[in-house]
Design brief:
Helix content is 19%, strand content 42%. With 85 residues, it is α+β, with helices and mostly antiparallel strands. It has a single domain, classed as Translation Initiation Factor IF3 (2-Layer Sandwich). The chain has a three-stranded antiparallel beta sheet, covered by helices on one side. A hairpin with a 2-residue loop joins β2 and β3. The protein is elongated.
Length: 85
């Protein structure tokens, strides 16, 4: 377990499309999932301290489009050297 008072760095990772003008490709989603996996299995090891699940419904012409995304908040005891802020 990680004590939240010891967390000094939090990385926010969004997986999915949250912006209708910038839809995520499969490659970008896979890249974000790879970063999440590296954050929770690499050194220093991070822990998921929060998850946001969101969606929005857009109407484009006669069609409804649903955008879904999940945001993971990964906490670290210190900022990993391999991770950009």
């Amino acid at each position: 377990m990680i004590d939240l008072s010891d967390v000094t760095f939090i990385k926010r990772i969004v997986i999915g499309s949250s912006n209708p003008t910038d839809l995520q490709s499969e490659e970008r989603i896979a890249e974000a999932m790879g970063l999440l996996n590296k954050c929770i299995s690499g050194q220093p090891k991070g822990k998921i301290i929060g998850i946001e699940k969101s969606f929005t419904i857009l109407q484009i012409g006669e069609h409804n489009v649903v955008l879904q995304w999940t945001t993971y908040h990964v906490g670290f005891l210190r900022r990993p050297h391999w991770l950009e802020a």
